[in-house]
Amino acid sequence: MVFVVCTFAPRHLDHHPQAIKVPYVHSNTEADEVLFYVRGNFGSRKGISAGSISVHPAGIPHGPHPGTILASMNVQRTEELAVMFDTEKPLLLTPEAMRMDDPNYPMSWIEQNEFSSPDGQPR
Question: Model-level pTM?
Fold first, then answer.
């Protein structure tokens, strides 16, 4: 299997006043994406902590959670540490992996407001 490994390590961020310092919304049309969060504050995600793993299958849009783009505007540095890999072929999730699935993860992109409950569902 062919795959690409990326590292998110502590670093200074772009310092232009209008720079968006978190990844943009995207769909990996040709690869499944797996992220393992080692430590730090993950500015593009809410509710992610050390030891978390996320899987974004090919073609599924994903990116920063609501509110994280604006929150990143004044950030000068990140101390996050994570490892990501993108696969050439689709991953097959084992029954053990499926038992660890967080069914609320897809809802984490829905911004909370007066019209939605804490789980993102309409009131």
Answer: 0.78
